[in-house]
Every structure is written in structure tokens, then in C-alpha cells.
Q: What sequence folds into this?
């Protein structure tokens, strides 16, 4: 079978800001953002936040950011997130990192983003661990440091954070910051692919096509290419079209 050159995707992936904040809500076991609170409940949350309860401060901050049950006000959102973050609330620290990274309610400041991600990451917040790793990977807000990037990607990946699993696979695949190991790359691609991450599905498929890190297996390659293509991955569809040609 003709070998198809592996087309590795870019290392860093991005999550939409509001999507990530909805994950923060889930981490805190609060109600989803789509369920608007009645006014008395908002009042109760406000009172709890003013009494210094960190989870209520997080909840209120996210609601101001998203305009959920209150008028959207990014500055107020960041105000309450900071109150919670300063008390050590990890999800608030993570959300503050996002706010600084994206310039939502505060001027964009990658150094501040890193500082808040670091606080949350050290408490085991997987999303913050991934984004801290990405900042080290790209040298934004901190000096570029591939060993630190890998350290934090691994921490997040071991908790099932899909972007971290994919990025760790790319580092192994290309020998970035560690010894190249295509078997390890395939292992991490497989973990992310099974969570539906199209870039990992694509890279895993190419690994099977070329027999890199896994036994060559065209059936498995086509399976994962189809999965990636179904999620809109253009490169996967191109290779499926090539394979289908007589």
C-alpha cells in the first residue's frame, strides 16, 4: 500500500469561551447556563455571594458574563469571579484565566491568564492544566518551555481532557520536548479519538495507514477517517476520496 505522508495538525486547539465556561459550571455541579433562574433565586445567589460564599460568587460571575438571569455585564462577571478566585475557588481561577486570555471584562493579558491558570492547575483543574500547557507550548505569557508544556498536558490528559490527550500525542509523534515515540503517540490519539476529537481521529487514521506506532490496518484507518470526516475534517475526506479511487 502506498504510504500517505502524515499531516499533523497544529498543536494548540481552541475552545469557544462560553463553551468552556459551561464546563466550569459542570465542574461545580451548578445548574446549566441554559436554565435561567427566576428573580428570587438570583437574589439568593447575590446574597450568598455578598456573604463571601465562593461557589455563589462563581455562579454569579458566570451569569453576568453570559447574561443568564441578569443583564450581561462582563466587568461584573470578572468582579465576582475574582472574589471567588481569591478564595481559592479553582473553577473561578480557570474562568479568570479565560477572561484575561480573551480580553473579556478585562484588558487582554496573557501573563495574568497564565497566573490564574497556574493557580487552578495546581489544584487539579484539568482545563486550566491544558491551557497552561498550551501557553508554555506557544510561549505566550511565559517563556516557551516544552518540558513544562508536556508536564501540564500530561496532568490534564490523565484526567481525560481531550485536547491535552491530542496535544500530548502530537508531541510524542514529532519528538517535541521528549523522545519521539509513535506508539505513545498512537495511544494518546486513540484516547482522544474515542472522545470524538476529529483531529485525533485523523492522526490515528494516518498512523494506521502508515503503520506508525500501530500495525498497518487499512480497515481501522478508514474507520477513523470516516469518523473524522463526519465531524467535518476536510483532510480526512480528501484521503477517503483518494482511497476510493480505482
A:
Amino acid at each position: 500500500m502506498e504510504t500517505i505522508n502524515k499531516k499533523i495538525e497544529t498543536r494548540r486547539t481552541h475552545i469557544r469561551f462560553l463553551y468552556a465556561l459551561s464546563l466550569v459550571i459542570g465542574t461545580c455541579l451548578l445548574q446549566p447556563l441554559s436554565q435561567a433562574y427566576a428573580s428570587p433565586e438570583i437574589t439568593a445567589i447575590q446574597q450568598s455571594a455578598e456573604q463571601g460564599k465562593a461557589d455563589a460568587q462563581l455562579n454569579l460571575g458566570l451569569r453576568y458574563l453570559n447574561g443568564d438571569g441578569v443583564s450581561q455585564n462582563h466587568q461584573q462577571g470578572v468582579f465576582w469571579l475574582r472574589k471567588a478566585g481569591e478564595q481559592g475557588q479553582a473553577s473561578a481561577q480557570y474562568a479568570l484565566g479565560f477572561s484575561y486570555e480573551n480580553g473579556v471584562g478585562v484588558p487582554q493579558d496573557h501573563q495574568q491568564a497564565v497566573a490564574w491558570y497556574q493557580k487552578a492547575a495546581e489544584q487539579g483543574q484539568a482545563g486550566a492544566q491544558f491551557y497552561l500547557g498550551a501557553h508554555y507550548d506557544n510561549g505566550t505569557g511565559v517563556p516557551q518551555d516544552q518540558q513544562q508544556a508536556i508536564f501540564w498536558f500530561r496532568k490534564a490528559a490523565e484526567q481525560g481532557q481531550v485536547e491535552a490527550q491530542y496535544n500530548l500525542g502530537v508531541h510524542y509523534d514529532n519528538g517535541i520536548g521528549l523522545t519521539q515515540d509513535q506508539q505513545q503517540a498512537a495511544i494518546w490519539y486513540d484516547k482522544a479519538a474515542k472522545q470524538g476529537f476529529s483531529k485525533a481521529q485523523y492522526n490515528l487514521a494516518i498512523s494506521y495507514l502508515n503503520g506508525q506506532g500501530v500495525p498497518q490496518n487499512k480497515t481501522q484507518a478508514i474507520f477513523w477517517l470516516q469518523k473524522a470526516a463526519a465531524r467535518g475534517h476536510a483532510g480526512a475526506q480528501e484521503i477517503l476520496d483518494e482511497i476510493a479511487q480505482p
